[in-house]
Amino acid sequence: MAKQYKQRPSEIIGLEGTYEAFCFDEACMYITSKLQDEDSPKPRFSDDKKTNKANNNDVIEWLNANNQ
């Protein structure tokens, strides 16, 4: 993912140099590998309003809002 986006996933949402950043990057890699499986269910991101996220910006905003 870092090669594709020219930065680590954790840097996109502002997690830098921490164990949490490492875990987030690892989770992103795992999810990406699972998404490549044809029969894998696709994730649906939702907030307390049950609003599904439709694109990368929506997901990044959701992650930032829920990163506490």
Element pattern in H and E = HHHH
The general outline is globular
Helicity range? 40-55%
The total of helices stands at: 4
Q: How many domains?
A: 1
Structural class: mainly alpha
Low-confidence stretches: none
Q: Mean pLDDT, rounded to whole units?
A: 75
Quick one: biggest sheet? none
Roughly how many Å is the radius of gyration?
A: 13 Å
Q: What can you see in these coordinates?
A:
The structure is a single chain. With 68 residues, the chain is mostly helical. It has one domain (2-65). It is built from 4 helices and no strands. It is globular and about 35 Å long.
Topology:
Blueprint: H1 2-5, H2 9-12, H3 19-35, H4 56-65
Kindly summarize this structure in a few lines:
The chain has 68 residues and is an all-alpha fold. The protein has helices spanning 2-5, 9-12, 19-35, 56-65. It has one domain (2-65).
Features:
4 helices; 68 residues; mainly alpha
